[in-house]
Amino acid sequence: MLLVIKYFIVGFKNFCFKKSLWVFHFGGASCNNCDIEILDCLTPRHDLERFGILLVGSIRHADVLLVNGSINTRDKERLLEIYNQAPKPIAVVAIGACGCTGGIFAESITFAGPVDKIIPVDAYIPGCPPKPEAIIAGIVKLVNK
Amino acid sequence: MAVNLFYFFVFPGLLFVAVTGAFLSWFDRKITARVQFRKGPPLLQPFYDFFKLLLVKETILPKYGSPLIFLLAPVFAVFGAVMAGVFILLPLFNITTGFRGDMLVIFYLLTIPSFSYIIGSLASGNPLAAVGGSREMKLILSYELTFLLFIAGIIMKSGQLFDLHSVIQTQQEGSPFIGSISGILLFIVGIFCIQAKLALVPFDMPEAEAEITEGIFIEYSGAAYGLIKLTKYIMFFILPAFLIALLMNGFRLEGIGILWAVLKVLLVVLLLTLIRNTNPRIKIKQAISFFMIWMNLLAVIAIVLIAFGY
Question: Please, what are the domains in chain A?
Answer without folding.
Answer: 15-143 (3.40.50.12280)
